[in-house]
Each structure stands twice: as C-alpha cells, then as structure tokens.
Amino acid sequence: MEEFEALLAESFEIDTPAEGSVVKGKVIAVEAGQAIIDVGYKMEGRVDLKEFAEPGEAPNVNPGDEVEVYLDRVENARGEASISRDKARREEAWDRLEKAYADENRVEGAIVGRVKGGFTVDLGGAVAFLPGSQVDVRPVRDAGPLMGLKQPFQILKMDRRRGNIVVSRRAILEESRAEQRAEVIGNLSEGQSVDGVVKNITEYGAFVDLGGVDGLLHVTDMAWRRVNHPSEILSIGETIKVQVIKINKETHRISLGMKQLQADPWDSVSSAYPLESTHTGRVTNITDYGAFVELEPGVEGLVHVSEMSWTKKNVHPGKIVSTSQEVEVMVLEIDEAKRRVSLGLKQTMRNPWEVFAEQFPVNTEVEGEVKNITEFGLFIGLDNDIDGMVHLSDLSWDERGEDAIQNYRKGDLVQAVVTEVDTDKERISLSVKALGGDKFAEAAGGVKRGSIITVAVTAIEDGGIEVEHEGMKAFIRRSDLSRDRAEQRPERFGVGDKVDVRVTNVDMKSRRLGLSIKAREIAEEKEAVQQYGSSDSGASLGDILGAALKGDE
C-alpha cells in the first residue's frame, strides 16, 4: 500500500499539458484518412491527413513520425485529446514570420486562393493576404499559372492579435528587376546597337526588352519619315535592332532609336531640292495653317495656307487638298538647322491675274456675274475664279454712284470695260459707264469756250431752264436767260424750243457745260458795234443793231 500511494502521488505530481499549447506527439497509426497521434500523458488524438500536406503536395506522414500538434482540449466527447496539426503549424509559422518581418527578410509561400481584391497565400501554416496590385509589376490578367507555386514574398505588415498578414510578390520582382536592370545597364553604352524585343506599343512609342531591362523607343525616333502610330511599323513580339540614344543612370531609363541606324535624308536635301524647283509629293497631314507634303521618306515640307491657292483666300486647307493626294509643289525655302522645307502649291500654276492681263488688256470688254455688292462698288466674277471691281464712280455717267448701284442685284450678268490690272496687288478695275465710250468727251470735243451752239430746251424750272446738246445736258440759270432783266423769265421758253447759246465753260472733270443766252447777246452786241459803228460817232445803239439785222437779212 505504501508503494501504491507513492506511485499515485508521483502521478499527481506530473503536470498535464495546458490546453492551447503546442505539444510533441508520435504517430502510432494511419487509418481512415486520419493519423492517430500519441501526445503522451496517456492521451491520444486524431488529425486529418490533409493537415500534413503542403500546398500542391500529397500528405507526407507515416507511423513513428514525431510531429508537433496544438492541444485544443485534453478530452473530447470520445475521450480523446482534441489536437490540430494546422494550428500547431500556424503558431510555429507566426513565430517564424514575426522574426522575418523584424529582420525584413523574405518568406516562402504559395498562392492558394482568390478573394475580393486579391489572393490568399499560405506561408507555411499562416494565411496572408496578397493585394491584386502587389502580384506583379504589371496588371495580371490570368493568375492561374501562379496558383500553388512556391515562391518568395515580402511581408508588408502583420498584426498577430488580429491575425492579419499582408504580403507582396511585386516587391520581390522589383528588387530582382532592379538588380537585373543595374547589371544590364552596366553593360550598355550610349551609341551602342543592340537587339531587342517589342513588349508593348503605346500612342507615343514602344517599349523594347533589351534582356531584362526595358527601353523606350519614341515614335519620333522610329523612322525619318512621319509615323502616325507605332503599330504602322512595329508589332508586339518582333525582334528589332535599335541604338541606345541615352541612359539615365539614376532612374535607369533608356532611350532608344531606330532611325539613327539609317542614313539621314536631310544630308542631301539642299542638293536634291534646289530652290524654285518643282517636285511631286504626297499629302501626309492637314492642319488649320497648311498641309504637310512628303517629298521622300524622312523629308516633309509645309505648304502654308497662304501658298495654296491664288484665289481661294481664308479657306481651310482641307478644302483644297486631301490626305494621301499626290500634288506638285515648288520649293520656296530650306532651313537645314530647323529641318524645315517651305513649299508652295500655287507657284506651280500661272498667276491668274497675269493670265487675265494677257487675255483681256485695258479697254477690253468683259462679262461676269455680280458676286458681291458693297458700299463702294460691285465685285464681278471673272475667269479663273478671280474678281474685278466696279467702283461707284464707274457705274454711270449720269447718276450718282449711290443711286446707280441700287439697279444691281447678286447674280446679275454685267458687262464692263477693263480699266486697270494690277498683278502685284491682285486687283482688276472695271467700268460699266465706259462701255459706250465717253459721250460727253466726244460731244465736248467740238465745243470750245466762247463758241455759239444751238441747244434744245428739255425742262422748265423756276431757277432756269435745262437744255441738251448732242447728249450733253446743261442748265441755264435765270440770270443767264437774257441781257434784259425783263426777259429773264423761264416761262417764255417751251420744251423742245431751239435756242442759240454761248459756251462760257467746259469742265471735263465735272462733265458740265457752262451756257448763257445773256453772254451770247452781249457778244453779238459787241460784234455789231465793231462792224456798224460806235456810240462815239453819234449813232444810236438802235441804229447800229438795225443795220446789223439788215446785214443779216
């Protein structure tokens, strides 16, 4: 009895393991998908075999293996210990991960599932969250090949109390890429020619893989000619030869070029395209200020809108030429420093004002349609899309210009005479009133100041009478109707009466005749006095005029 009491006391002195701790056990059997483990203290428990499997691998456990398990409860409903291999691995993993996080070391794990916003990663017992943005340096469309694959991760943050761990695969890749980039960049030099593979194409260029490091091939460095989009000459996956233009050692950025490996067409531009020479080119681009014409691959010139047409002013270049159209142009200027060529489209065609001047010299009659009516005259459409202007003063001999222009409407056909062609200022002056010649000048050519002419009365007014002589109209004021004041009455004349008058003035500029009956009578009196006597000899004026009248009879 004493020995039994001693053994019983000894058994009570042995502490059973505390629940919630990790204990060591021994696999004593594997059956029905479970491993039976003896954890000592006369306790056994069961663990599913899947808890012994690594991600993507089969369970690896055999009788006799010693393993660590987590003791949940000392005894369950079946009288067995409730144990877990997963929880033991998790506790072990958290200890290991906390040390790795503190030392900023990488940890190994495998992506085992997809969740909202990213993936779950098994880090050897502990489950971490991998955000979608931290999977790769570029967005990943298909993560299938990465699932279950053991690979390194970097712990970004962890909280054991909450059971949160956030990891990054991208940080590992960037670090490795940075090392690889540094090595590759160290072997590159500016001006070196290398082979690369086109990885990506954008609006502004293409990214080329040079064997672990990417370089940017800008669209302007792909060819000497204009390239609207890189896809015109490159395709993804294509191997190309490029030249290293610039390397930024700090940012590891590499600028590449393709055209630098080809001959520069600008080296022979001056000799190939002399000034004022004409060439055929293709319109490559149209803007508000002109059109670009390709003379050869790599050599483009600008036809400014002012050099596109002799006659079409203030119109969009797209209304004159179209993209891909073949056009003939003249070289106006070459600036090799700025790599610019100024071209002219209208210079390849004759100046329409010069052509008009040859076909229609001054004093030639022309016909055209009224295109526009302004406050200072009419614009008449002529051949070759050019306009001539009829000034107000050239509309009519008889009417004021402001009144004469009221007789015209847009679209009217008008005949006129060419009075001037200024090819430098691109102006053509026309005259409608000159069509029948200058009747006043013709009629006034035989009329001199002091001469006596016969006129016909055309109108009677209070202030005098209106008369006409060979198409020329004039007005005789009341004071000039007679030498005798009593006879200075307009009503003593009738329309159609013929009257002899003396010409007192011929004004070609104002196209007016100065006429006077009174001046004629005074002139006749002087002439009669000279021929038939004078008042000094005692003869009366009546006698003298009587003698003069008899002489006339």
CATH superfamily (homologous) name of the largest domain: Nucleic acid-binding proteins
Radius of gyration of CA atoms, rounded to a whole number = 57 Å
Helical amount = 10-25%
Q: Could you tell me the number of beta strands?
A: 30
The domain tally reads 6
Mean pLDDT: 82
Which secondary-structure class do the elements indicate? alpha+beta
Largest sheet: 5 strands, antiparallel
- CATH architecture verdict of the largest domain: Beta Barrel
Please indicate the percent range of residues in DSSP E strands (runs of 2 or more).
Answer: 35-45%
Strand order of the largest sheet: 3-2-1-4-5
Provide the low-confidence segments as ranges. none
| Global outline | rod-shaped
CATH first level of the largest domain: which class? Mainly Beta
Number of helices: 9
Would you tell me which CATH topology of the largest domain applies? OB fold (Dihydrolipoamide Acetyltransferase, E2P)
N-to-C CA distance: 203 Å
Question: What does it look like?
Answer:
- With 553 residues, the protein is α+β, with helices and mostly antiparallel strands.
- It folds into six domains: 18-89, OB fold (Dihydrolipoamide Acetyltransferase, E2P); 104-174, Nucleic acid-binding proteins (OB fold (Dihydrolipoamide Acetyltransferase, E2P), Beta Barrel); 188-261, OB fold (Dihydrolipoamide Acetyltransferase, E2P) (Beta Barrel); 265-344, OB fold (Dihydrolipoamide Acetyltransferase, E2P) (Beta Barrel); 352-431, OB fold (Dihydrolipoamide Acetyltransferase, E2P), CATH 2.40.50.140; 439-531, Nucleic acid-binding proteins (OB fold (Dihydrolipoamide Acetyltransferase, E2P), Beta Barrel).
- 18% of the residues lie in helices and 39% in strands.
- The protein contains nine helices and 30 strands.
- It has a five-stranded antiparallel beta sheet. Strands 8-7-6-9-10 form a five-stranded antiparallel beta sheet. Strands 11-12-13-15-14 form a five-stranded mixed β-barrel.
- Strand 24 and strand 25 (427-431) form a beta hairpin.
- It is rod-shaped, with a radius of gyration of 57 Å.
- The model has no long low-confidence stretch (mean pLDDT 82).
